[in-house]
Amino acid sequence: MAVQEARQGGADPAAHEGGCTCGDCPHGAREGHRRAVAAFLVKRDEYATGQGLPAAVAHSASASRQWVSEELAQAAEAVAERGRAEGAAWLARLWQRTAVVVWAGVLALLLVQALTAIGAGWTSARTAGLLAAVLVAGALSGASWFHRARGGALAPVIGEDNRLSTSRAVAGSWVLLVAFAVLVLVGRLAAASDPRERDALIEGLELARGAGVVTVLAVVCGIAVLVRRVVGLRVQGQRLQKVRAHRPRAADLLTDDSGRGSFADIQYVVINAVALAFAAVRLARRPDQLPDLPWGLAVVVLVSAGTYLAGKYAEGGRPVILSVVRAREAGDLDAPIRTGDDIEIRGTGFVPAGAQGADRLARMVVRVGPVNVHVPLVPVVGGFDNPTDDLLTVPVPADVEPGRVDVQVVTAAGVETNRYTIDVTE
């Protein structure tokens, strides 16, 4: 549908075309990005079928490939700029949505308390719970306003790669639950007039009552800090490739950087969500103490956290060149590698997770001796035939001197592969 609109020019070509004429308009940024993507897909598919090539380069396969690659690279950069603008606009209006969701939760709690109070009567515990929810919602709303340019209340759980962090989101959920539980006890303690009731509420904060939930809180917060450190060190050591996303998405909590479901993330989120639900129910049933999470459930959460951390250690890897051979077309004679020939670089990890977009692929470089060669974009209908994660095809530039030459790939994440030596003949 978007492609058809791009071909037809859309219903209103003047609206949100180029720069948005509505000022700082999130809708204009979103519409501009959508149209830029649609136009790029049309151009890519046209070049893939041989359409749109100028007559000056149509007679030469290498010249037409280079011209198409440059055109697609420039168009992809324009799409990337639109994507960054759309991401910034999305974050700028996210704080309002988070504030609405938070206060909707307070309203839902009020309705649940009102319904459950029928017959049982309104108690001080219900009042304390409602006041605690208002305090937490007010604090989150204030934080949302102060961080409105970075996603509102979600700013602390957005990672350095502009994706939602699973470990931070899980830790933040436990922090909010424990803070809410303590505020409920504080409210009940402030309203209690009987000394025995006050003593019982203070005993509810004893470690023996909430050892399970305190242990889980300590572990998930430690995991959030440790994962950030582990990822940072692996990126600096070139053992993990990270590409910045245009904007965070809810799916980031359950997927890897390429958008595929991650078992480590999914099990961590699911098990912690179940444990949080159990703890919330226990707090509702026993509002006079911290949620007494059973040790069996706490151990399950700890096992899940260990699995998640192990997955972070195991993911990624450095790109590697396995072999370099001369590219041969049908009918060509077998021959050594000469300047001007195409070479196939075979290996793994050339395209990092999240770098499948044309603007990222256009940043890939192959060093052939002292010369940096940008990897040409070769379009096919629906995607690109070059570069791929395990195969790159580039020409040997004329500036390369005959002899033994090192070949090295630099990915879109800036990570360098090993050096592979080839022989270039005259």
UniProtKB/TrEMBL annotation:
The chain crosses the membrane at residues 100-122, 128-148, 169-191, 211-231. Gene3D superfamilies: Immunoglobulins. Keywords: Membrane, Transmembrane, Transmembrane helix. InterPro entries: Ig-like_fold. The keyword Acetylation does not apply. It comes from the Bacteria. This is Integral membrane protein. It comes from Streptomyces thermodiastaticus.
